[in-house]
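quick one
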Amino acid sequence: MVTALLAVLAPLSFAMPGPPPTLFEDFESGASGWTIENAAFGSGNGLWALTTACSAADAGHSQPTAMVFADPKQNCTCGGAARAGSLTSPEILLPPAAAGFNLVLRFRSNLQTECDPGYDHVRVEIIGDDGVPILVASNKALGGVHLADFGYGTSLPAPAWTEAAVNLDAFAGQSVSIRFSMETYDDFSNDISAAIDDVLVAQEAVVAPPQIAVQPVATVADARTQVQLSVSTEVKDIYSYRWSRNGERVPNSCGFISGADTATLSLNNALLFLCGEYRVEIFGPGGSVTSEPAVLSLLCRADINRDCVVNSTDVSEFINLWFVDQTEGSTVTDFNNDGVSNSTDVSDYINEWFARSPWC
Ligand SMILES: [Ca+2]
Ligand SMILES: [Ca+2]
Ligand SMILES: [Ca+2]
Ligand SMILES: [Ca+2]
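structure w/ calcium ion:
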């Protein structure tokens, strides 16, 4: 078994110069001490199960077995029902904080959930001494380390097992369990699955938080085009990325927004409401770092006052400017670029306004 354990650990490249792990589970010998609650959240029809089918059959984790939330008998989907369930580790006593070490949770996941950010949530929570679950990782925009999710939608890479690393220093010295949960909320678009494997909690020699080499840059672009914001780091471990706009986390959204959990955020049809101040937070086992802000300005001819919405204020602004043009012979409101400002520009502007209101 020791040989098997080492064989499993080696390809996963979990560096462990510190003491032996507090928890390691590859699910190859069952799930001793783990609790599956497929009645969690009251649905009574969760799907967590040990299996060698579905995404467990894909490379990139300790094979052949993984915990998968999907029904192998329904083509590895969640079928047409609202479903919820959780998977909880045995209680483990975390070592106290020790100089020179970080306490790190690592696991592998393969998430292929609905692209709508409001549904199909995967949460990873730590339940500590006080019994209150603390969210430490999630898909979508719920909080904690942002888990890669290969749900359907355009511009997404092919589904894959990926590793996540979560700093657990805040829980040092506590008796904790780790809860993975999946919730679909509804019976719609449930052609989805979630899988977990290779759960490891260990003290690891301290590594520095991620360091940003190139900050995201202020960008001016036309509305309704593709806009990308990027950050670059000197990658020294598993990092996860979390983009925010004006302080609100940006979720991936059905190909309209993608890469919100990567170094490059893509706004694939940048409507006006997406302008604002962007930052990216990068998480690693040694901590996190937040980028400098980058302001995204989106240009739209109907948005006269450049406040990122096309509304009646723009009409009155245009009319005010138009009257000034008529009085002074200026051409600020020469909307059709024919060299004069006249009534044609007003009708052209109004037509454009109706076509573009409110988000261009
Ligand atoms: Ca496994
Ligand atoms: Ca769904
Ligand atoms: Ca406006
Ligand atoms: Ca004109």
